[in-house]
Amino acid sequence: MSTTLSNQPALSSPRTYDASRLSTRFGLAFAICQLGVMVCMSIFVLPHGGSPHDSALVRGNSVHDADTYYRVGNYVFMISGILLLGFLGAVGTRLRRVDPSGALAGVAVAAGTLVALVWPMAAMLHDVALDTAAAGTDPRILGAWDAVAPYSLAFSALPRLFLVGALVLGMRAVGATPWLTRAGVGILVLSAVGSATLLTGDMFPVLALSTLAFEVWVGAVAFAWLRDRTAPSASEVRR
Predict the structure, then answer these.
(1) For position 135, what pLDDT does the model report?
(2) What's the pTM value of the predicted model, to 2 decimals?
(3) Rounded to whole angstroms, how far apart are CA atoms 128 and 125?
(4) Dist. CA 116–CA 85, nearest whole Å
(5) Are the C-beta atoms of 78 and 120 separated by less than 8 Å?
(6) 67: which residues sit within 8 A by CB, 6+ positions away?
């Protein structure tokens, strides 16, 4: 019995996909989800925690009574924040095209990883505080844990400076989307000033504004990249 080629199953061609564009979509998803979560938290979760002017005891009891709301909100917030990691693949690819040495890409990816972890980690730490309160400790401890959110956000603003700075330098090098470049410079200034929340709470409004601007800016950058059909191919990146 002989076997001919006609008896063999046809070899299918390997499926190809644009990993860079897929990664870019994570930037858009990050911006949309973060903004949506912030709105939902402001409407459905944070009002249960009482007023900032209430005593730690009152705030602690209020948060403890709304335990489920906070746990769900924290979980969704962590998921939306971690989406930034998916966007860093496109960031690295774009910046390696501009800077073949890989210095900008390395700084941006490392800084972006810290941003994606530090700020959402505040939600995880708040869950620990909820468990502590559920174990019967003084509710004033839970009320005082409100500070973990602004402090974590202020700390994340420091690596954010390196992420945005590397992207701004990359965009300036290619002369693309000047308005995004100028907006990035503004975010750098706001983030630097807002990071002083670690020193005084009076800077928190600036920090909150810089965070909102950063999330919108990431979405705008991702959208601009998705419209840009001149993205590097795999062979260009390897070279």
Answers:
(1) 83
(2) 0.84
(3) 5
(4) 6
(5) yes
(6) 130, 133, 134
